[in-house]
Design a protein that fits this description.
binds zinc ion; about 25% strand; alpha/beta
């Protein structure tokens, strides 16, 4: 794959994949998403900054999206902001969280005696809000976790249809600006004849959709929000043998997440937020989920998944297992 194609990938790096507390091999929740020079975090548990160093995401962070205010999802903001201050950051940082989170997030930003020398904006989001980023947006969706909580999708705008250069030339359209006009949907006139966009441009191509649930029980709202996603990152704290516990604590089982993925028709499912019980061997979670939905893997810290434009494959890059943390992850 050439460099141009690589840079157009959406790159997802799992910084922390443990539920509630870190284990030797897994840090608490944190997910880095990179797209054409933008870097954002979804959740930022304690120690996330060190995972960012370890797995080479860089610190050119534009936004942090917090799913909810359980400690394992946001305490890392405190240290991360101070490190970015020491690095001389001057750029604005946006921090988003669910309704009711602003006060705690502001306390998190300003905790201690150091002043954060760069601007930080904290904003609460409701499930219908949209955070636009040019040709894509981050859209929250409601989840069920017994406390105000959101999942998030990163959703690209549809791309223009494919432009058929051969066909355009055959119709007498000269190479140059008329190609662009046609591609953008304007008819052009060539030798007294009008060439219409539909003659040379295919139908718009869907953008990519990546979804992250944060902590939640499976719910119909999630199915709706993640329908057709190229990648669904769903929590699976427990296996089905602890189904009652999962229900009581507003978490999911691997099977529950897989049923949801199947119903929503996603391309690929990654399970995360793994209970300490499965931290060494998440095999039972994977096996349980694959009985329902085969394109499932259980995340580990340092796992990178790159998502190309359809019909490109989603390419799992099994790099950087914790015990080989010194590796360079390309
Ligand atoms: Zn959690
Ligand atoms: Zn939680």
């Amino acid at each position: 794959m050439h460099a141009g194609a690589r840079s157009r990938m959406i790159r997802v790096t799992f910084l922390g994949t443990a539920a509630s507390r870190p284990t030797v091999g897994r840090n608490v929740s944190g997910l880095a998403v990179q797209r054409e020079g933008d870097l954002m975090l979804f959740d930022c548990g304690e120690g996330t900054q060190r995972q960012m160093m370890r797995f080479g995401t860089g610190f050119g962070l534009g936004a942090i999206f917090v799913t909810h205010l359980h400690a394992d999802h946001f305490l890392g903001i405190i240290g991360l902001l101070r490190t970015m201050a020491l690095q001389g950051r001057e750029d604005l940082l946006d921090i988003y969280g669910p309704m009711g989170s602003e006060e705690v997030l502001l306390q998190t930003v300003h905790l201690g005696v150091e002043r954060i020398p760069f601007p930080v904006r904290v904003r609460e989001l409701g499930p219908r809000d949209r955070v636009p980023f040019g040709d894509y947006e981050v859209a929250p969706f409601p989840v069920r976790h017994g406390t105000p909580a959101l999942g998030y999708t990163l959703k690209e705008s549809p791309r223009l249809g494919r432009f058929d250069v051969q066909r355009a030339r055959a119709l007498g359209v000269p190479d140059g600006p008329m190609f662009g006009r046609l591609h953008r949907g304007e008819p052009v006139e060539v030798d007294g004849r009008v060439v219409h966009p539909h003659e040379v441009v295919g139908s718009p191509r869907p953008g990519r959709l990546v979804a992250y649930t944060g902590d939640t029980r499976p719910s119909p709202d999630i199915v709706e929000a993640v329908r057709g996603a190229d990648l669904l990152i769903h929590e699976a704290t427990f296996a089905e043998e602890e189904g009652a516990r999962a229900f009581e604590t507003f978490h999911s089982t691997a099977r529950g997440a897989a049923l949801l993925a199947r119903e929503a028709g996603v391309t690929r499912l990654v399970l995360t937020h793994v209970s300490a019980r499965y931290t060494e061997d998440p095999g039972p979670l994977a096996a349980e989920a694959r009985q329902v939905f085969s394109p499932t893997v259980v995340a580990h810290d340092g796992m990178v998944i790159e998502i190309g434009y359809r019909p490109d494959e989603v390419i799992p890059k099994e790099s950087g297992r914790p015990e080989r943390s010194g590796e360079v992850h390309e």
